[in-house]
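Chapter review: from sequence to fold.
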Amino acid sequence: MPWYFMERQPEAARKEYPGASTPMAGTSDAIMGSMPEFNASKRYILITGAGGFIGQELTIALLSAAPDIELVLADVFKPPLPLSKNNTTNTETDTSRVHCIEADLTRPPIVATLLNSKKWHACYLLHGIMSSGSETNLEFGLAVNIDSHRLILDFLRRHQPGVIVVFPSSLAVYGPPEGTEVVSERTIALPQSSYGAEKLVIETLVNDYSRRGLIDGRVVRLPTVIVRPGRPSAAASSFASSIVREPLRGEKSLLPVSRSLEMWVCSPETVVRNLVAVKDVPKDRFGRNKGRVVNLPGQTVKVGEILEALEEVGGKEAVGLVEEKVDPRVEDIVASWPSRFDVSVAKGLGMVEDVSLTEVLYWACQKSDDCWPKMMHGMLKTTIILDRSTRYTSMPSKPPKQNPLLLNPPIYLCLLILLLFRDVWSGHRVQSILNIASRISDSFTP
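The token string follows.
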């Protein structure tokens, strides 16, 4: 939250962004007091915007990648530590190597204090105002999506030249595709939203500073990430997660676009795994005249196919909780993004492809504490859902072929209990859980 927005419209800011800092929070002294003592044997990595979902997942993945990595998480509010224990596998994440900082990155003194505190091995610039938010408030979007990023890039190029900078951009930098046009890194970017335009400005700076040898930049254009936890965000594509997340909680959700609309999407697991991998790509692999932009792998899906996957996981009752009501403003923004990509550059650099939509939804259900079909997943002890601490480095293309129903005979007693209480518990939830059991059993049949 930029300081001037808080000062000029404090009540509106707190209402719209309840987690935002006050203007006095995150001072230089407070930042220095929260910093770990420098250790030459450690590789320090900064993640801005680390309070968000991707930042938290990236933290876990980086901690798992190497024992010498020390992380500094920065956001406009003090980012939480990622969950230290995975209740599914009883594994621990060592959060002693994580340090959380509250910092308003639109303030030059704060940026200088934060960046000057360490010799950085790499910096991930995840902070930003999402698509709908940028379109609604141009000044806010410019301040966060351009000005704050330039402050960081300029400080790094002057004081820590050659540092690795990973900038997650977006498919929103492109204009609307021509029919079934396949987009590549060489396709001319003509953004049709302020968010896309702001991302493209920073892409250009990262490319130019890298060409000059001032930083070692990597620009990764992310697909729409589904399924995100929490509540709907200011992203125009937020509905793609909401139409899965809320129905799996037994709640209603709104679909503001047509079922026939195509999107380029990817699971958070695949995106995070590729964010970790791109950091370690040797800079000469990018090619002298090809720039530093990489379109990350994803998959082309129609919105209707997301609903079909929802039905496979949660049953027809879950799909029935999705209300279809087209919002032309949202549909126009999302329709301006391409949905078909050539990812040969990414694959050549070692990036991995995404898993099926059904697997994406199973993962989302497993990670959520209030996803009601998760009861079935827990009883089945199924290995469809990969361990949260290892899935970024050992993701299979398909789930192992084991039938959890056969491996867990007590499941039948649990199903009998559910049937007995069908009249007093929500009937559609019971039926959907039974549907899940049937589909999982069928999918594991040799």
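Two observations follow directly from the output. The first strand starts at residue 43 and ends at 48. Residues 281 and 349 are 7 Å apart (CA to CA).
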